[in-house]
Specification:
With 87 residues, this protein is of the alpha+beta class. Helix content is 36%, strand content 23%. It contains two helices and three strands, in the order E-E-H-E-H. Strands 1-2-3 form a three-stranded mixed sheet, with no helix packed on it.
């Protein structure tokens, strides 16, 4: 969504609910990486990415692909110049 703030500043908002399956999340990472290279204005992504950046964020549930998924998530944040706001 394209947002115009006070009729001047333009930024983009994307809302995502990521798949619980690691393989399907990788498709999202690939799509986001492509979008990151095209966006030149400010961009906010609000999401439940169903991924964590570190093991201490994980509580309960299955952890079969934890480290591989964390690495992929960290990579998309880094490569896309994105910032985790910690929520």
């Amino acid at each position: 969504m394209r947002v115009r703030w006070h009729s001047q500043h333009v930024w983009y908002l994307t809302v995502v609910n990521s798949a619980p399956q690691v393989a399907r999340r990788q498709l999202l990472w690939d799509d986001l990486f492509e979008l990151c290279s095209d966006v030149v204005d400010d961009w906010e992504i609000i999401s439940d990415f169903n991924s964590t950046l570190s093991p201490n964020e994980k509580v309960g549930g299955n952890d079969n692909h934890g480290h591989k998924d964390m690495s992929a998530f960290r990579n998309i944040l880094h490569e896309g110049n994105l910032i985790d706001m910690g929520f």
